[in-house]
Amino acid sequence: MRKLPRAFYDRDTRTVAQELLGKYLVRVHRGRQRVGRIVEVEAYLGPHDRAAHSCRGLTPRTAVMFGPPGHAYVYLIYGMHHCMNIVTEPEGQAAAVLLRALEPVSGLKARTQGPGLLCKAMQIDRILNSHDLLSENFFVAAPPNTDEVLRIARRPRIGVDYAGHWARRLLRYYIRGNPYVSRP
DNA sequence: CTCCGGATTCGT
DNA sequence: CGAATCCGGAGT
To answer: Which of A17, A111, A146, A180 has the smallest count of CB within 10 Å of its CB?
Structure first.
């Protein structure tokens, strides 16, 4: 599989978010390989985005978002679930794309609809925070068939009602009609 | 140090 | 609709 180059992530976050749809997330853990097709994502645009963690500035937690693109930002939410993001844009610009749902490709039995379930099924936790996604055990790759045309839906992001008008921005993207989208 | 609330999920 | 459950960030 063709691993995505760092330059893929070093671009406008909304562009990266939409182009991540259809790509394969690959995780090798304890000798088992799990592969899921990314079908739903959300873009978090940086310090001015009131829904983004980076709106509080550079902190120990958000440092990863300020770092170089192509790294994972993984955090614990509600004391029990993990969420995984991919850092985008040049170093110093704190933006990322949240992965919300996968379509199982191989090695996956558990549900993958929703950011917490996605991480649980893929064995992703905080150990992988700041992990380089151009590594051998955790990466994103272009699928074998690259000539497929996707219809992409744009919707408001989930669970960010506290973010004022930013909550209404259409920054959630998913593959229209895909049965594995968490909230169509 | 204490306190608050969360990019969720599950069960009632 | 409310509980679960723990950590980061902000305030004292």
So the answer is: A146
A13 lies in which domain range? Answer: 2-175
Strand B: which nucleotides have any atom within 7 A of a protein Cβ? 5-10
User: What are A117-167's pLDDT values in tens digits?
Assistant: 999 999 999 999 999 999 999 999 999 877 789 999 999 999 999 999 999
CATH of the domain at A12: 3.10.300.10
Neighbouring-strand partners of residue A152: A175
Structural domain contains residue A184: no
Q: What is the C-alpha separation between A28 and A13, in angstroms, rounded?
A: 26
Residues 6+ apart with CB under 8 A from A63: none
Find which nucleotide's C1' atom is closest to A60's CA.
C8
Contact A99, A153 (CB under 8 A): no
Strand ranges inside chain A, DSSP E:
2-3, 24-29, 32-44, 72-77, 81-88, 95-106, 138-142, 152-155, 172-175
A17 touches strand B (CB under 7 A): no
- Bases along strand C below 7 A from a protein CB: 4-10
The whole-model pTM stands at 0.98
A57 touches strand C (CB under 7 A): yes
A179 touches strand B (CB under 7 A): no
